[in-house]
């Protein structure tokens, strides 16, 4: 595989003494990202470009101390955790509560077709995600509660440690919303992150979250960044859908 090198990336700050650190990583580009499909809880594979992203992510995190590894069991997240673990050699713990939103009847649907199939839910996804709920799937409220329960459990299991957690875009957005002490109704104030973006949440000894890094994909080159080639995720473009 061709190896790409990012010229520089942002430093991750030192962990505060006594804190438990969650190093939160979004999975690499997957087939659903490439094909423009709602992949949700579907267990699809990763793309060739995703493999290049993983190379850069692994290099970025190789010298960062990591004491434990957790991942959504879905393939795209698990392969991302394995790439990070290439230089750390830790057991990876599967945590089902870190999975992506269950898209129910929308699983596998082209995003371009969602406005035709479900115009109200399509609008909700972009402009009022707190109201999104797919038939026979999960509501956003369920995701908001589920992923935070997972993170809290991981923090309790690993006091004072640095834990790498591999998850998904919508799931991570909900985790960051909690970490910012925002209610679900303010989820649209939390920006989406690029594939393999890194966020860092430090929990103090009282269990209070402090967001130290969010949505940092500075290890990616423009050639492999998904968001460098898309505009839907930009806040101003989401707002235009109102």
TrEMBL record:
<dbReference type="InterPro" id="IPR050275">
    <property type="entry name" value="PGM_Phosphatase"/>
</dbReference>
<protein>
    <submittedName>
        <fullName>Histidine phosphatase family protein</fullName>
    </submittedName>
</protein>
<dbReference type="InterPro" id="IPR013078">
    <property type="entry name" value="His_Pase_superF_clade-1"/>
</dbReference>
<dbReference type="InterPro" id="IPR029033">
    <property type="entry name" value="His_PPase_superfam"/>
</dbReference>
<dbReference type="Pfam" id="PF00300">
    <property type="entry name" value="His_Phos_1"/>
</dbReference>
């Amino acid at each position: 595989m061709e190896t790409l090198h990012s010229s520089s990336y942002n430093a991750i700050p030192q962990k505060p003494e006594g804190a438990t650190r969650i190093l939160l990583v979004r999975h690499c580009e997957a087939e659903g990202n490439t094909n423009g499909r709602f992949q949700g809880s579907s267990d699809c594979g990763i793309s060739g470009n995703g493999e290049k992203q993983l190379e850069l992510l692994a290099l970025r995190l190789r010298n960062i101390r990591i004491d434990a590894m957790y991942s959504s069991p879905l393939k795209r997240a698990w392969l991302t955790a394995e790439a990070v673990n290439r230089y750390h050699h830790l057991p990876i713990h599967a945590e089902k509560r870190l999975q992506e939103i269950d898209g129910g009847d929308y699983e596998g649907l082209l995003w371009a077709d969602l406005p035709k199939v479900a115009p109200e839910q399509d609008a909700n996804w972009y402009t009022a995600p707190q109201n999104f709920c797919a038939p026979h799937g999960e509501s956003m409220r369920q995701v908001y509660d589920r992923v935070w329960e997972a993170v809290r459990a991981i923090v309790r299991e690993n006091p004072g440690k640095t834990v790498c957690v591999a998850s998904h875009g919508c799931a991570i957005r909900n985790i960051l919303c909690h970490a910012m002490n925002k209610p679900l109704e303010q989820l649209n104030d939390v920006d989406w992150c690029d594939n393999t973006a890194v966020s860092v949440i430090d929990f103090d000894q009282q269990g209070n979250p402090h967001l130290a890094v969010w949505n940092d994909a500075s290890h990616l080159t423009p050639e492999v960044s998904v968001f460098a080639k898309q505009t839907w995720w930009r806040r101003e473009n989401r707002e235009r859908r109102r």
